[in-house]
Amino acid sequence: MFLLPFIRILDKMPGLHQIWLFLERNGSHLIDCEQNTVEEAIEYANEFAHVNNLSLDGEPFCINTIVFCPIKKDSSELSNFYTSMETPLGTSPSREVWRSFLWASTQDNVDSWGINRLLDSLPLSEKDTVYSVISGIMNGP
Questions:
Q1: 134 in a domain, yes or no?
Q2: Residue 136 resides in a domain
Q3: Which of 48, 77, 124, 134: CA 20 to 30 A from 67?
Q4: pLDDT tens per residue, range 80-105
Q5: Contacts 24+ apart (CB under 8 A), 86-90
Q6: Which domain holds residue 117?
């Protein structure tokens, strides 16, 4: 199971959404939460938010093997975390960081600019890409 804290900023610009993902290895991988059941992983997500003083923007939810943990964009403790701009790939030691992505709103699931499909070339685990996890966020509960 993986943990994916995220922040969703709607309509950053007309038709675009800014999505911040909290990732390990300087922003290149999902966080392995090492829980065996969905219930344990959701409990872990709630505990993660509580320990780090992050306000939830809804209940954590699971899709496949990822527990999505929606975080409020105005959580007071966000400034205590690194961003991917502060720790580029190859920085040692590697850190857990917030990394931002843009997502284009689509009509009839047609991405005429191809913005979202570019995210499919960025792997976050053996079977998940940035595209597949942001799709889960956009289509989640």
A1: no
A2: no
A3: 77
A4: 887 887 877 677 888 899 999 988 87
A5: 87/26, 87/27, 88/26, 89/26, 89/27, 89/28, 90/26
A6: 2-129
Query: Residue 120 carries which side chain, given as an amino acid letter?
Result: D
Residue 114 has what DSSP assignment?
-
> CA 119 to CA 86: how far, in whole Å?
21
Which residues are paired to 71 by β-bridges?
56
Find all residues with CB under 8 Å of 97, minimum gap 6, and list them.
22, 23, 26, 27, 81, 82, 83, 84, 86, 87
Please say whether the beta carbons of 78 and 57 come within 8 A. Answer: no
Chain segment 103-137, per-residue pLDDT in tens? 887 665 566 677 788 898 999 999 999 999 999 99
The tokens of 73 are what? 């964009």
Q: How many structural domains does the chain have? A: 1
Helix spans in the chain (H)? 38-51, 115-118, 130-139
Strand 97-104, strand 16-23: pairing: antiparallel
The verdict on residue 140 lying in a domain is no
Question: Does the pTM of the predicted model rise above 0.85?
Answer: yes
The answer to whether position 8 is within a domain reads yes
